[in-house]
Amino acid sequence: MSFLTSDKPIQLHSADYYKACAIGGILACAPTHSLVLPLDLVKCRLQVKPGLYSSNAAGIASIVKNEGLLKVYTGLGATFIGYGLQGMGKYGFYEYFKKTYSDALGFSNSLVYLGASASAEFLADIMLCPFEAMKVKIQTTIPPNQVQNLTKNLYSGLVPLWFRQIPYTMVN
User: Fold this and answer.
1) Predicted TM-score (pTM) of this structure
2) Boundaries of every domain in the chain
3) Contact (CB, 8 A) for 38 and 21
4) CATH code for 10-171?
């Protein structure tokens, strides 16, 4: 990763450029999604058992009181890895597809950018989906002694993920 320590500028559309975009995506997505994990934990548990908590704050307080402070970060590993991979794909592939589509069409405009973002998110979600599935299972159904069930149906939520994330990413 010579581009991280070099004094010379990164050449646009070079391998170092795409690596920098991918690393930027990891840094933009993994820590931010991990930071709000306590809210996600409460949301996921409420989806499985409505009425479990009266509010987000009450849910977090209940988890801390009954399970311990660190339990509000249940699913942290899967979240950090999954959203890191998604960010890597979203940022890196977007720049790649933007260049590739522009070159193939001979022009660059908003439609090219929309296509590039949709293509990037399509691939990024393939990387995210199994980790998101594991995170939800860890947060809602999997007791610690049943980890073998963690890897079942890891892509069952991929199509709904695409329907949510692809339009969102295109708008962004």
Assistant:
1) 0.88
2) 10-171
3) no
4) 1.50.40.10
